Structure formats: structure tokens, C-alpha cells
Amino acid sequence: MTINIDDHVTGCDSNSDQSEIDTWIYPLIQMGPFGIVDDEVAMKAIFRTAEKGEEIFLASGYFNLTDHYLQVILQESQSKYDILMASPEVNGFFGAKGFAGAVPAAYIHIAKRFFRLTGKYEQHDRIKLREYFRDKWTFHVKGLWYYLKKDSLPSMSIVGSANFGYRSVYRDLECQCAIVTNNNQLQQQLKEEHIRLYQSSTLVSRETFLQNDRHVPLWIRIVSPLIRHFL
User: Pathway of this protein (predicted)?
Assistant: First the structure.
């Protein structure tokens, strides 16, 4: 499925039958084990066709982009990205007993790998990574807000269950909706939602991963590539 935002947002007035329609909703289903990949196809198309001057705000409570998403975002997409993920303290597994307690460290390792890749491809100016933190909260937010060139309000938002990671794409049943709109009131609400979330975040830098609480034990670094496809 291809979602052409410009056709909806800029072209709706050209057709009299469509002139009063200002919002479109696309259901997106993903169930990889059964070959249902509507969501993955749509997301890759959105990332791939995003142009220079546009900006995508992407939130994932369990940040673990698939290699396909990484390739498109890092090497094919032209837009800016501002990605919001959970800090270790607000990860749903923080403080858990046994092996589950190591999950936040695995996500730190995955985030560090992504940060290094953005540096390898000289994309730090185009792709930003942020950590969400609120004391005594956990972070499970997932979603996307898409701003067209020179627009101060988003023209598309994606809401649903997917975290854009391996588990969402290849293992679980996920359902999302892509909302494309030029309704000013709705756009304002979507912007307020994204701003409210990002207000509780800090920008990730090289120094972030040098902090003592970002240390990843050797055994987790060894097993992370093996368990990454289950996160």
C-alpha cells in the first residue's frame, strides 16, 4: 500500500466531489508469519518517499528497527527524523527479576548500534535520537507524526500497536491506522500530542552511552544479535 500525502493534502479541492473531505484513514495490518505485511510495505514506502525538507517524528517504546527499516531510513530517505525511545529507567522491563531484567541493557546496545550507524553514514544532522524519561513512569508509546515541507502542523499520523521492530514486523499481530488530514483542528491536536511527549525527552549523544548507567555487560553484547529478532 502506498499513501501519497501530497495527493490528499494539496489536491482535495481540485475534485468537487472530494472538496468537503479533509481526513482519510488507512487501516494497516501486519502478521508476518501468515504473509500479511500491509503495515511493513506502507511504512517502507513512507520512509522511502519522504523528501528533503520534510520531517518525521517516530516514537517506539521498544526501539529495535528492522534491517529493512534501517536501510531505508539511513540510505534512501531524504527527510529529517526525530526518534523517541525509552530511557532504561522507563523501559517496561526495568528492575525485573532474572533474564527479563537484562532487557533494558539489550535495548541500550541496540540504540548504541543505531547511533553508530547514523555516524557511519554521516547522518547525525538529519537523524536525531532522544530518550524519554519521567520519574516512576514507564514508556510504551508508539506512533509517527509526519510534517510536509514548510508546514508547522503534521499532515499524517500513525497510531496503533506496532513498535516498528522485529517482533512487530515478523512475529506479532499488529494493527495501525494512518491518518492523513488537512483538518486544522485535528492537526493542532496531533501536534500537541507529539510536543507533549517530546518535552520529557533528552537528545542522545555520544556522551549518553558513556554514562555508568548505560554500561552494557559483555554477555548481553554477545547475545543481543541473537535475541534481537525476538524484541
Answer: Phospholipid metabolism; phosphatidylglycerol biosynthesis; phosphatidylglycerol from CDP-diacylglycerol: step 1/2
What is d(CA 224, CA 107) in angstroms, rounded to the nearest whole number? 9
Annotated domain spans of the chain:
5-230
Task: List, for residues 198-220, the tens digit of each pLDDT value.
Answer: 999 999 999 999 999 899 999 99
Question: Which of 66, 138, 107 minimizes the C-alpha distance to 204?
Answer: 107
**DSSP secondary structure string for all residues of 11-79:** TGGGSGGGTT--EEEEEEEEEGGGTEEHHHHHHHHHHHHPPTT-EEEEEESS--B-HHHHHIIIII--S
> How do residues 131-158 score in pLDDT, each as one tens digit?
999 999 999 999 999 999 999 999 999 9
Measure the CA–CA gap between 171 and 104, rounded to whole angstroms: 20
CATH number of 5-230: 3.30.870.10
φ, ψ for residue 227, nearest 5 deg? -95, -5
| Segments of the chain assigned E as strands | 23-31, 36-37, 55-60, 80-86, 127-132, 142-147, 156-160, 173-181, 201-203
